[in-house]
Amino acid sequence: MLRYFPAVDVEIVHNKRDYAIIAFSFVVVTLCFLIDSVADSRLQLALGIAGWLCLIALLYGECKYVRAQIFVAVIFATIGENFASIYMAGYTYRLENVPAFVPPGHGIVYLTAVVIGRCGVFMQYARKLALFVVLAGGLCSILALSSIIGREDQIGTLLFVIYLLFLFKGRSPMVYLGAFFITTWVEIVGTSLGTWNWAAIDPASTLTQGNPPSGVAAWYCLVDAIAIGCAIPVLNGVARGLAFLGLRGSVKEEV
Q1: What kind and span of H or E run contains 74?
Q2: Could you tell me how many helices (H) and strands (E) the chain has, helices first?
Q3: Burial of 118 (0-12, 13-18, 19+ CB in 10 A)
Q4: How far apart are CA 239 and CA 6, in angstroms?
Q5: In 3D, which of 99, 231, 114 has the Cα closest to residue 181?
Q6: How many CA atoms lie within 13 A of 189 on its CB side?
Q7: How distant, in Å, are the alpha carbons of 194, 219, 237 from that of 214?
Q8: How far apart are CA 78 and CA 51, in angstroms?
């Protein structure tokens, strides 16, 4: 079950840049939601521009494979946001739109999950952290299911089971492990400040759901899985397009 986790005796490398990205992302997410709590559509647009600038800056120094993952994650998540929020009304943003900062925000959240998963501390204590996630997440799901904390949350329990499948059966468990921490923070802060609110009844399944659902990290893991799976095809497609245009060699040198 843990065959895709780092080996126990793996050499640990503590990269200061990774820890800086993690700290930056947690702080920026909080500041963004605080500002959005009083923002109109124009200020949201400004937050969106700032979000894109932050994402571009964070991608500097990342390999082209990670950049391709971010590209896929942003496209897929943006489509998903419009479907799940605007069309299905599974959750609703404060101004009943999809704020301009959401697309680059998904890129930052995904990159943070990748960075958390590869940082020295998580590589060193991967199994202990996975145990913590199972126990803490499982307890929260059980308590939410029985309405002991918050409103009844049937969908959250189902999502947490799906998350565990991602974590222990997926080939990139460290990304999913990292996703649990950053997405839990995003959801708790976002819903607490009223950036968005989850519907009491999930419109697709008609199951009850919390605000946020206890296993909400599973939705983000779906984005992560799509990003990981589609990055290579995207890179190959770009390479073929550049080769057709006769630009492949020069661009590869720049990358």
Answers
A1: helix 64-81
A2: 10, 2
A3: middle
A4: 31
A5: 114
A6: 18
A7: 17, 11, 38
A8: 14
d(CA 118, CA 171): 14
Give the residue among 26, 34, 187, 202 at the shortest CA–CA distance from 113: 26
DSSP reduced 3-state for 212? coil
Q: Is the pLDDT score of 91 beyond 90?
A: yes
**Buried b / exposed e along 22-57 (16+ C-beta atoms within 10 A):** bebbbebbeebbebbeebeeeebeebbebbbebbee
Averaged pLDDT score across all residues of the chain: 92
**Integer CA distances (angstroms), 252 to 236, 247, 255, in order:** 12, 9, 5
Q: Where are the domains of the chain?
A: 16-225
pTM comes to 0.92
Q: List the one residue out of 119, 90, 89 whose CA is nearest residue 16.
A: 119
Give the pLDDT confidence score for residue 248 in this predicted structure.
Answer: 57
117 with 76: CB under 8 angstroms?
A: no
